[in-house]
């Protein structure tokens, strides 16, 4: 039966449902994060039964204060109970029912409808994409990921201009792109070599291996971002590390003779782009073998640093929705390959621990 027959009001977040425990019939979306045990604890493995689940706005949520407890009546246990279906943990669902206390905690009881959201289908497709890398670590994992992402559509350098207008589109203004180092929202079509124009920044500096703008390393969208022209010039081919003098034009950006520290909001993005390049380009098929090392001043060698700093940035600046959307667009509309460290951030430590 369609949800509309229940005359329920859609709530956009579990937090709203938590704040509105008024006995009304509502439709709530959230990620399955565990099974309630008490008002202040949940199970996240070795589930004891199929009678209830907890959902949250964030699939990595650990605080029960930010969770909504869902009663599973007999109609829904075989599909949504975690004892029977542990693989649905972290899937997103839409549930309609009565907002009222459950387990002495903010809850939803007497469900009238529970459905997986379209996002859960996408998540399943992504997991299938990485199936051959499951349960692997270290160099074995790196080789498996390389085999998965190796073959993809290669763009011309001219094609990159138009692609960036969509991969880096401002989510609040479809006429603009977001520039990586300044964070400035700017017209998609104000690109070029003039002052305050944006141009194509190779996050893995193209001189580190001297691959230039040739197809493959030089046109791979997973590491090319729109950047203010003069800020891009200021970065040059510097490796990444903390410290230095304030850049001036890009807020919270610092540099010295051999390193570049971008603003906090993109430090993790940059780290994951560098890690992608080191896995995608392994020296086969006539390509370069790019590797991350723990040095700066790598110059024309096919190395990029500084590994220890990039690992810190990866942990300090987790994957966000802008990165996820960008990864999806590159996969679906352009290259048909993904950055595995956006989909599975935990794999960074498995390879570079």
From TrEMBL:
Keyword Isomerase: no
Limits of the Endonuclease YhcR N-terminal domain: 14-116
Acidic residues bias spans: 249-259
InterPro entries: Endonuclease-I, His-Me_finger_sf, YhcR_N
Pfam families in alphabetical order: DUF6359, Endonuclease_1
Name listed for the protein in its UniProt record: Endonuclease
Organism name: Bacillus carboniphilus
Keywords attached to this entry: Endonuclease, Hydrolase, Nuclease
Keyword match Hydrolase: yes
GO terms of molecular function: endonuclease activity
Biased composition (Basic and acidic residues): 217-226
Sequence intervals crossing the membrane: none
Annotated region described as Disordered, given as residue ranges: 215-260
């Amino acid at each position: 039966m369609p949800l509309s027959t229940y005359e329920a009001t859609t709530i956009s977040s579990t937090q709203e449902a938590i704040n509105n425990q008024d006995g009304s019939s509502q439709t709530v979306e959230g990620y399955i994060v565990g099974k309630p045990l008490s008002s202040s604890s949940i199970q996240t493995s070795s589930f004891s039964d199929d009678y209830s689940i907890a959902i949250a706005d964030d699939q990595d949520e650990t605080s029960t204060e930010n969770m909504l407890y869902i009663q599973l009546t007999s109609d829904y246990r075989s599909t949504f109970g975690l004892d029977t279906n542990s693989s649905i943990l972290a899937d997103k669902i839409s549930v309609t029912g009565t907002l009222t206390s459950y387990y002495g905690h903010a809850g939803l009881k007497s469900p009238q409808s529970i459905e997986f959201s379209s996002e859960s289908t996408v998540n399943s497709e992504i997991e299938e994409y990485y199936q051959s890398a499951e349960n692997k670590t270290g160099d074995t994992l790196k080789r498996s990921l390389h085999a998965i992402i190796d073959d993809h559509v290669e763009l011309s350098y001219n094609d990159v201009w138009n692609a960036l207008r969509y991969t880096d589109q401002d989510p609040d203004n479809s006429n603009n792109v977001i520039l990586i180092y300044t964070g400035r929202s700017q017209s998609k079509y104000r690109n070029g070599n003039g002052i305050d124009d944006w141009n194509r920044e190779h996050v893995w500096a193209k001189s580190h291996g001297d691959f230039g703008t040739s197809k493959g390393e030089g046109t791979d969208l997973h590491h090319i971002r729109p950047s203010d022209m003069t800020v891009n010039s200021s970065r040059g081919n510097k490796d990444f590390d903390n410290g230095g003098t304030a850049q001036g034009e890009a807020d919270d950006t610092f540099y010295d003779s051999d390193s570049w520290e971008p603003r906090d909001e993109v430090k993790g993005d940059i780290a994951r782009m560098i890690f992608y390049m080191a896995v995608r380009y392994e020296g086969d098929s006539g390509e370069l073998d790019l590797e991350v090392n723990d040095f700066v001043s790598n110059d024309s060698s096919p190395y990029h640093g500084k590994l220890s700093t990039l690992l810190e940035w990866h942990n300090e600046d987790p994957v966000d929705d802008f990165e996820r959307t960008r990864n999806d667009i590159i996969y679906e509309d352009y290259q048909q390959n993904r950055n595995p460290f956006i989909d599975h951030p935990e794999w960074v430590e498995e390879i570079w621990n």
